[in-house]
Design a protein that fits this description.
By secondary structure, the protein is mainly α. The protein is built from four helices and no strands. Helix 3 runs antiparallel to helix 4. It is flat.
Length: 114
């Protein structure tokens, strides 16, 4: 489908893959140990799509950068939604650490040389 892929396209696919990572991890939590079938289906569908898009992005991006950005997007999104949806603690320390992850993601994007 994507014989060759441009760096901007790869970055777009990577961001979408990261957003889908947030979807699958939040739906996994909502599935209550895979006992709620709709959330279980969302988990597996979003995980498959996320991994697939990551794989496509890796055609044009360095593996270390792409993987760090992908997991960073997922970590930031999961932490933020965990605080919003699941009443996880909201502390200055947590916000600070999440901010450092965001800085790292932006740094990897801005300093990458495709």
């Amino acid at each position: 489908m994507f014989a060759s892929i441009s760096a901007p396209t790869a970055w777009a696919l990577l961001v979408i893959a990261g957003l889908l990572e947030i979807v699958w991890v939040i739906s996994m939590k909502a599935s209550e140990g895979f006992t709620r079938h709709l959330y279980t289906a969302i988990t597996f569908g979003a995980a498959w799509a996320s991994f697939s898009l990551l794989g496509l992005a890796l055609k044009a991006l360095p593996v270390g950068t792409a993987y760090a950005v992908w997991t960073g997007i997922g970590a930031v999104g999961a932490a933020a939604l965990g605080m919003l949806l699941f009443k996880e603690p909201v502390t200055l320390a947590r916000i600070g650490c999440i901010s450092l992850i965001v800085v790292g993601i932006l740094g990897l994007k801005l300093l990458s040389a495709e």
